[in-house]
Each structure stands twice: as C-alpha cells, then as structure tokens.
Design goal:
With 123 residues, the chain is an all-alpha fold. Helices cover 59% and strands 0% of the residues.
Length: 123
C-alpha cells in the first residue's frame, strides 16, 4: 500500500517518465552529458530495470525509491541503529535520517520506556 512505502497514491509511472525523473533537462550545449545528467541516466537505468523486473515477476508495484523507504523503516523498527541506517542510505547527517523517519519512533518510544522501567523495577 502507498502508506507503507511513502509513495503517493497516483498511477504508477515507469522510471523513465517525466513525472518521475529527477534529472536536469539536457542543456543542448556541447556534446555528451553533464556529470549530473550522466548520474541521472545511470539512476534511471537502475530504476527502469527494477520496474521491468517488478512487472515481469508480477510483484506488487513499488518504485525503487519506495523500496528504499521501506527498507529504512523496517530496519529502524527492527532495532538497527539510526547511524547505520543513515550510512546505508547515504544521508549527510543522522539528523536527516531521524527527521525523515521520525514516524517510526512512535512505537519505539513505548518500547524504550518499558525496557528502562524493567531495569529500574526489575520486571
């Protein structure tokens, strides 16, 4: 479902579609691509291949980016340290990761309180 992956509930679009492309438009200057365009081309190639396999194997539709969010959410819920998640995702700081995935910590707050209470009260 869209809420589990943070993907909008809009019709699915292939990775190479303009609606999903984070790539800058070609400049039209010179020959070849800028470094930013080359990086985007590679990212779109991975996304396109992922989309193709999702369709081929008749899996529930999810984008590669949605899978990234799902992984991070599940890792945090499983108790993986946020610093490890931050490093795996390539976020510049742990604060970025914690801000994006703060919704995960709601249940974790209760669990933490119960663990500490168990240590204090010997339960």
């Amino acid at each position: 479902p869209p809420s589990a992956t943070h993907e909008p509930a809009t019709p699915w679009a292939p990775a190479h579609s303009p609606e999903r492309s984070p790539c800058p438009p070609p400049t039209g200057h010179g020959v070849g691509h800028s470094p930013e365009q080359a990086n985007c081309t590679e990212m779109e190639s991975h996304s396109t291949e992922f989309d193709r396999r999702v369709q081929k194997w008749a899996l529930q539709r999810i984008t590669l980016h949605g899978l990234r969010h799902t992984w991070a959410t599940l890792a945090l819920r499983a108790g993986v340290h946020p610093k490890v998640v931050q490093e795996r995702l390539g976020h510049s700081t742990i604060g970025v990761t914690l801000n994006i995935y703060s919704h995960v910590s709601v249940g974790m707050q209760r669990d933490a309180a119960e663990k500490v209470a168990g240590l204090i009260f010997g339960a």
